[in-house]
Structure formats: C-alpha cells, structure tokens
Amino acid sequence: MTVRHMGGTRVRVLVVGAGYLAGHIGRRLAGLGPAVTLSSRHRPAGSEARRLDWLPVDVARRSSVQALLDTARPDALVIAHGPSDITWCEANPELAAAVHHGGARHLAELLGGRRAVLISTDNVFPGRAASCGESEPTEPANAYGRAKLAAEDTLLASGNVLVLRVSLVYGWDREGLRPNFFTTCALKLSAAEPVAVPDDHWNSPVLVDDVAAWTSALLASEHTGVVHLGGPRRLTRLTWARHIAQSYGVDPALVSPAPKQSTGYACRPRNACLHSERAGSLPELAGLAPTDVFEATAKLIAT
To answer: What range(s) does the RmlD-like substrate binding domain occupy (predicted)?
Structure first.
C-alpha cells in the first residue's frame, strides 16, 4: 500500500480519534492524497479536525465500531483514541481501560487484515531509566500506561499493525479543552503570569508535526512491531518553561520550581523520555529527524 493509492484507487484512511493529535495526523494524511475520516464520540472542536470528514463512534461498544467500519470502509487506520488526561485515567482506571483496551480489542477483532498504526505512550515504562528505547522492558507507570500497553498487545497480535510510542507532544493548541504544556505555559508567560512547574520531571518533547509526519510514513510502510519517537533534547519542564519565558522576553523568574509529587504530574514517571533504536534503519523515516524543542519553541512563538 502507498499512502496515496492502492490498486489504482484512492486510499481511504480512518483515524480513530478526533482530538489535537488526531486532527494533525488527519490533515497531514489528507495533504498526501488519501480520503481521510476522523471518528469520535463527539464532534471535533479543533480547527484542524473540523476541516475533515467525521463519523461518530463509541469504541467501547463493538457494535458501534462495526457500524463505523461498515460506513467508512477504510483501507487503513490510525488509532489515536481515548482519554489522554493521565491524571483523569489514574482516578478512573476502569473507564480508561474500557476505552483504550476495550476499543483496541474491538478494532483488532474487526480489522480484517487492514493496515493500522496505533499511537501509544512513554507511560508504558516506569521512569527509572533516563530514556527508553524499543528494547527496554515495559512496566507501566500508571493506569494510562497499563491501558495503552494492553491496547498495544491486543492490536499487535492481530497482525498488520505498528505501534508508534511518542513522548510529550506539543504545539499551539489554543482551542483545546486541555491545552498541551507548551500552549499553557506560552499563554501564561506571554501575559507575564507566574507558572509553577516540576523541576524533577524529565521529558523528550516531540512536535505534533513530527508525530504526524512519522505516522503518515509508517502507515504507508509494511513495518510492524514498535517504533519510538522522542525529541532530541531531554529536559525538565522547569527548563523548558524558563526557555519559553526567555523567548518572550519576560523574566524567567516567573517560572518557579515545584516537586512533581505536589503537582498534577504526580502519577507520571520521573523520566518520560524516549529514543529509537530502530528508526535509523527504516528508509521511510529518512529526512524526518525530530525537531529540537528549543528550535521549535522559537518558531512557534515567532508565529
């Protein structure tokens, strides 16, 4: 399968999800030629997602997933569904599992050999290692990580599936109900408002455009198994927030350190960083090196 055509006809790609990341992936794919449809319980709110076709689905119900596939008739799927609020998942582990793992189980049963890429997370690791490659043994740090790992295992067992684990995703998300870390800090600091962030929580942030580019490239490949995508710079949220402040020309002292355990990041692994042992050997990813977070931050603020 190529991204644009399969057997001389236009490829239909179904994105299971319609949030910030799903919308960017859908727009990237649509720009490459496929007919793209997003799907979720509620109509998408973000501008990226609103430009694409949309169908309703409740992935926790097998009959709803079956109806979606019958209507969309996809050739391939990108699976980016379920709540990504890690703190919410920790407080509601059964609901998180019902959507992430239950939805993956229904999709796996109904894929029928179709190509699929699942977007997963660094939270499948405990956070003891400074950064994790694909060969690192999994040991989920929280309920979100457990639900996503179960989804990974279920979908990988179905055959023609690749799992793309991504680190902390960022970019402008002014319309989101729960904007990502960059957007939240940038909006507050641009207004000279103080920000308190962890100084003991490490990430390897990855630009949303890079996630969309890798997803599109890997969907068109025949690779299966797991691939990691993390940004090239490992840093604390405190360091990143102070860099955002400097980029706006405001006093970095507006950003104060806070122990991770005293913040909404308490249930996240201390080290939430990924690197890839595999990406360098995949020709589809040539020329798609992840953007450095400081470089991307400067460009995002400039625009």
So the answer is: 12-279
